[in-house]
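Q: How do we represent a protein-ligand complex in a form that can be generated token by token?
A: Start from the inputs.
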Amino acid sequence: MGISVHWSWLAALSCLLCMAGEVQCNCTETNMAMAGGDYKLTNKLERGSILVYHCPEGYYPYPHLARVCQPNGRWNPSPKRFSPQRCRLVECPDPNVMENGNVIPPQEKYFVGNETTYDCYSGYTLRGSTTRQCLPNGKWSGSTPICSRDSGDNCPDPGIPAGASRTGNIFGIDDTVKYTCNGNLFLVGSSERVCQENGQWTGKEPACYYKHTYDTSLEVSEAFGSAIKDSLTTLESVDDTQEGRKIRISKNGTLNIYIAVDISASIEEKHFKNARDAVLKLITKISSFSVTPNYEIVFFSSDVYEVVNILDFLDGKASLISVMEKLSTFTIGEKNAGTDLNTVFKIFLDRMAFIKRRAGEEGFKEHRHVLIFFTDGAYNMGGSPLPTVERIKNMVYMNNTSDQQKQSREEYLDIYVFAIGTVIFDDDLHPLTVGKDGKHYFRMRDIENLQDTFDEIIDEEEVKGLCGLHKEYSPDKTNFRKMFPWVAFVIVQVTKNRCLGSLVTPRFILTAAHCFKFGDTPEHVTVELDDGDGRVKRVKTFMLHPKYNISAKVDQGVKEFYDFDVALIQLEEDVKISAEARPICIPCTQETSNALKLVGDSTCKQQEEHLLKDQIERLNFLTRKRETVGLKDVHAKLGDNRDECIKHALTAKGITTKDERVAVTDNFLCTGGLSPQRDHIACTGDSGGAVFKNYELRTIQVALVSWGSKEMCIGGGVVESDRLSRDFHINLFKVIPFLKSILGNDLNEYAPLTFLEN
Ligand SMILES: *[C@@H]1O[C@H](CO)[C@@H](O)[C@H](O)[C@H]1NC(C)=O
Ligand SMILES: *[C@@H]1O[C@H](CO)[C@@H](O)[C@H](O)[C@H]1NC(C)=O
Ligand SMILES: *[C@@H]1O[C@H](CO)[C@@H](O)[C@H](O)[C@H]1NC(C)=O
Ligand SMILES: *[C@@H]1O[C@H](CO)[C@@H](O)[C@H](O)[C@H]1NC(C)=O
Ligand SMILES: *[C@@H]1O[C@H](CO)[C@@H](O)[C@H](O)[C@H]1NC(C)=O
Ligand SMILES: *[C@@H]1O[C@H](CO)[C@@H](O)[C@H](O)[C@H]1NC(C)=O
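Then emit the structure tokens for the protein with 2-acetamido-2-deoxy-beta-D-glucopyranose bound:
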């Protein structure tokens, strides 16, 4: 009894001391359990630790998502007996805000799994989804249903997203609509949209989020991918109204990308590595586009850890490779408590001011700036970054607040916020986003999947300029199209001749001339290339190289002469460009110079030096392997090594000349044999396929498979060379006039490939 009294007296005393801030108390786990879910602690039961609740999919923790351990040993917010912590069913915002139609079934609340259907009053037509489902992330599937009738307004009815209210019911030029979210929902996206002369609303449709609403990683990759795409392409489509067609113009200027990652205590520890890997993935992806941005990359808590300084790029002291190296080895020791977001914005503003001094007023106009933040917004030092954001805008908009100027400068500044965490300070973060079009605010529960999210962003890319863009791997082995989106199968029906080909523009397939026999017509030719719009493509015509003549050297002891063994197949319709169907890059085009990051006026010769520079150049080609393809590894023997390689042509059937150069002209590359390594060898069905080389995420075709000294396999398969066997491939650098005469000819509605002047 006595001891017990003593105890409670001591406990009471230490609690008083805690409250006075003199002694640090730990929190306790008593009564913290949650029915239907569990929790994790970020730093045991010590001060500052965060207790994060987790519920199964389709549920969210209620009434709180997390609690923080305070220095006095109490949780904030403190648990309340009358409102026990539990997992609640996810709710979706009220869809009954739709005008001029019915929502079925009418309910007061809609929960995960609930389905709704929509119909319009007579005289109105429905745009958007007719049925929608409430998803586990707190959003409705599909798109906002809108019942409208033709009112002769300039812009279409922009609708009302679930959970929102709209003011503004006239949709003429310069009319404005404004949105707010009802109840405890908050708005993400454009709260105000203006009807423009071109019949489009400014901005993007807003959405109403609950605190438990998240973007899925698919949504993030689609929305961020399409938003950032504009910044990352050097070509831009513009309507040439005089000619009534789309033309492409070159965007001028420099792209500066500033990335900041919050690593303060409120972000869980394991997230540091995830964030670092995600940033690495992001810049790798960006490197596959045709621009070469400058980077500033920082991690921050109350201190700012600068990984890459953008000024090093201006001085030519940094490169993509050095950034990747620095980033992948970057670690952080003991980090300080506290988060100072404003200081990061100030540093970015500083860097811009420096760039402006360097580039001068006029030069700075050509600089575009993209700021990307990963944070939960729980800053507790430095104050709100909003005034700094205003100063950044002011700088990029050139001190000019006129609407006209603002509009013309808006595309030069984007601020994206990835709001990540269990507890997100949306009210502080959402106003920091800046940008004309596309979604700029992303709400994610954690960054575990962020790397995969960024890996997917190029999937949505439909930019025609990006030849050869591909994925490095495909988790699904039978889906080879993402790795080799340009591959095509060519079948000539009469002879049952099977060849490979490569998509070189949305309309043309490059293959070997010998796939066709005299008398073959376009109806006999089938091209298989699955672009999602069907596997088999109709052929309009095909063209062989005018100098191709298989019997040209019969007299000279070469029964079958394969010089100029190239052909182009023209399809009836363009292939639909996607991650699974996209042209390969071919030599001597501007597109390939972009892929190789050759700046300024580049030449064909520069490209050749890049691609076929060594004495031994490692290359690849494909082979058909049942329903998929196999990759063959070969080494082109160039320079001093070539003579030894091509002399094996004399062992081929039908060759009686003593001079191998009669059969193998300078137009061929030679691979095969065992030295320096055992190469793979071509099979008959491999003919016409691309011999290629990868440069980062881009693929460039340097040759095409033509013939070999020895038939070692029929129909396909990954087969190794023997000592004597050699393959000969048409070097594309030698047949440029033919390619240019067809592919560089501006006969379609948009310009095809741009061949270099010299
Ligand atoms: C709080 O817990 C830590 C271990 O997690 C312990 O080292 C420390 O002494 C505790 N502090 C108090 C005041 O009990
Ligand atoms: C909506 O979902 C809740 C929770 O799962 C369920 O109880 C209710 O029956 C659903 N309503 C309809 C109409 O399906
Ligand atoms: C791009 O820069 C060039 C030369 O600096 C200039 O002639 C051209 O008009 C610029 N184009 C655009 C779209 O600003
Ligand atoms: C822009 O405004 C700031 C502050 O208002 C001023 O210091 C600066 O000189 C101005 N710059 C130009 C180019 O007018
Ligand atoms: C601001 O920009 C507009 C449009 O570009 C221009 O007409 C105006 O002269 C500018 N004002 C100042 C103060 O620079
Ligand atoms: C191919 O070459 C042979 C031998 O030089 C010649 O007789 C024949 O006319 C050529 N064929 C074509 C289509 O040019």
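Residues 1-13, 239-249 have pLDDT under 50 and may be disordered. The domain at 480-743 is CATH 2.40.10.120 (Thrombin, subunit H).
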